[in-house]
Amino acid sequence: MPPLTAIDPAHRARFVTPTIQQMQGSLILQIAGQVRAKIAAGEPVCNLTVGDFDAKQFSIPSFLKERTDVATAGGHTAYPPPEGILELRKAVAAWYARHLDIEVGPEWVIVASGARPVMYSTARLFLEPGDGMAFAVPSWNNGYYAQLCGAKPLPIPTSAEHNFFPTPAQLEPVLRHARLFNLNSPLNPTGTAISPEALRGIAEVVLAENRRREKTGERPLMWMWDQVYWRLCYGAVRHAHPCALVPEVSPYVVTVDAISKMWAATGLRVGWAVLPPVLAERMGALIGHMGAWAPRPYQMATADLLSREDEALRFSEEFKAKLHSRLDRLHQGLSRLGVPHLVPQGAMYLSVSFAKLFGREGLEGKPMTTNEEVRRWLLEKAGLAVVPFQAFDLPEDSGWFRMSVGAVSLADLDQAFVRLGAVL
User: Fold this and answer.
1) Which of these, 181, 226, 187, lies nearest to 205 by C-alpha position?
2) Cβ-contact 53, 264 below 8 angstroms
3) Is 375 within 8 Å of 32 (Cβ atoms)?
4) In this predicted model, what pLDDT tens digit does every residue of 359-381 receive, in sequence order?
5) 399 Ramachandran zone, left/alpha/beta (phi>0; psi -120 to 50)
6) What are phi and psi of 359, to 5 degrees?
7) Angle, CA 57 vertex, CA 52 and CA 61 arms, to 5°
8) Using one digit for the tens of pLDDT, what is the confidence trace for 192-232?
9) Is 160:200 a contact under the CB 8 Å cutoff?
């Protein structure tokens, strides 16, 4: 049997579209490959790069697994409806009424295989080539989605002073040129959360811009509100939904959510969007063409768990406590070493600044001047794997990095701080 003829990588551009040729790979995945190689070589590494959960550290709810097994054994393995099974869409609507103070019917809910398909579908739903897509930086994946849609990225720089969220004053001139505005809270990569007061101000800016467009006949400004980490707020931090704060903004809001971070169920791939029914119908059709629906047994199990209030909340609190104990250990260790960072407010992340390492001798014997040089130095010298904010569309060498605790134990963190303390 003759071998198949491969394509010379140098000729790839002749085969694929210019958009795909220009598509960038994930910097996080590139770093992950380096980390795996060091672990395979037996070197001690505290892996704080993973925006996922190691099942050895964080398991899914037992009820979710049991109900998935029951649904599978019961023969519920056919295609689900492209918009999602009705039981889950009803359960999501009821869950939001109880916990977010917003009233929607199941016709507002579109289910997909995790949050990513509905995020990408939102971009495809509203963006044409050349349209503006506004998003704060640092933030996750927005630059990739803008590039894939041929949209004009409109990044909005933020600062630690404002928890890495944009202010209404920053947004007003940018949103005038945008067709889609994306905002995430609690925020990946920073682990910060927007206050209800700040969120209300942003909702009022979005509403004012759309009222202006109603008079001019321009297409509306749509807002993708990504809240996949909302059940992971800590201490006195309170999550709010823009439509509960300013109900008049609801025609322009697409809410993105999933069980992935709420219940450590990243691999089960159940997410959803909540948006006005006339738009939900179009998103359901798009999800159907993509085949990006969540498996029926997982949808059925998720509907059961959302409807079991006590079961869902008990797991949520226990899971959140385990995550927060690791984030708190990070906070304590960095504080002892005098490393600037932000106190975690939500999600599974902590923002840390290693800018003080700029000017110190790096691996090549020269003073370090970039985040990448600092990142490699930390990995090689301290076995500490972190992700620079460049992976989240922030181009500057700011010294800021993301730490994630989804794949580490408390012992892993304690050992990492011994090594970090020694090299600092």
Assistant:
1) 181
2) yes
3) no
4) 999 999 999 999 999 999 999 99
5) left
6) 95, -15
7) 85
8) 999 999 999 999 999 999 999 999 999 999 999 999 999 99
9) no
Domains with residue ranges and CATH for the chain:
9-58+313-423 (3.90.1150.10), 76-308 (3.40.640.10)
- Going by C-alpha positions, the residue among 233, 2, 238, 240 that lies closest to residue 102 is 240
Tokens in use for 152? 């004009």
pLDDT of the residue at 90: 98
> In this structure, how many other beta carbons lie within 10 angstroms of the beta carbon of residue 424?
16
Q: Cβ(420)–Cβ(337) under 8 Å? A: yes
Residues 67, 117, 195: CA angle, nearest 5 degrees: 90
Question: If you write DSSP's letter for every residue of 204-218 in order, what string do you get?
Answer: HHHHHHHHHHHHHTP
Burial class (CB within 10 angstroms; exposed 0-12, middle 13-18, buried 19+) of 415 = middle
First to last CA, the chain: 59
What is residue 225's three-state secondary structure? strand
Token representation of residue 106: 């199941």
CB 401 within 8 A of CB 354: yes
Neighbours of 30 (CB within 10 A): 10
The residue type at 379: L
Rounded Cα distance, 20 and 414, in Å: 43
Whole-number Å distance between alpha carbons of 161 and 340: 13
Helix, strand or coil, per DSSP, at residue 334 = helix
Instruction: Compute the distance between CA of residue 218 and CA of residue 213 in angstroms, rounded to an integer.
Output: 5
> What is the residue whose two structure tokens read 């309170």?
238
Cα distance between residue 314 and residue 114, in whole Å: 23
- Cα separation, 89 vs 91, in Å, equals 5
The amino acid that residue 230 corresponds to is W
- Assigned token pair, 89: 């869409």
